[in-house]
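Students often ask why we bother encoding 3D structure as a string. The short answer is that it lets us treat folding as translation between two languages. Here is a chain of 201 residues written in the first language.
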Amino acid sequence: MIEVYADIVCPFTHVGLRRLVSAREELGRDDVGIRIRAWPLELVNGAPLAPELVVEEVGELRDHVATGLFAGLDARTFPSTSLPALALAAVAYRQDPATGEAVSLALRDALFERGLDVSDRGVLAAIAEEHAVHVPGPEGAELVRSEWAEGRARGVIGSPHFFVSGRDFFCPALDIKRVDGHLRITADIAGFAEFVASCFA
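And here it is in the second language, the structure alphabet:
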């Protein structure tokens, strides 16, 4: 089992998960699941992510790393909070790991590829119905905070932070830096190869 702490609204996670799932398919290792736990950046940072920041990050990703992704990102429908989506994913994992993974990936696709507001209850209800999961009530928020606490105890430093085979990898698919105030993102080919080798050894 591959574990990762991440936020739904983190574009770096979307790239990392897409590449991980693709590598898993290429290797024929569907026996290895991905457990995506909540790392709610709005609680970590004390405020929700600004759409303008995510648009900047996605622009750099589109230009240099993931030209085929983020077809639907729209700042006008960017969610005001990721907590309800994280709660839905957490409840889905309680049903079973495969459903949890499917819902987690579907939420990210809804946001980044279809331009949907994943804080909207109707959007969440449609995803929940598609995967035969209920939209959580107050218990969902408790699950999110519990996973966040677990992440802090394990030393999570950001989104996405992976744990596998006794090792941990922070954002292994990407090299992210600012140069003279400008965001620069490139693919970390060697780092990702090492990560994949650990996942499917």
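Translate back mentally: Strands lie at 2-6, 34-38, 161-164, 167-170, 174-179, 182-187. Keep this in mind for the problem set.
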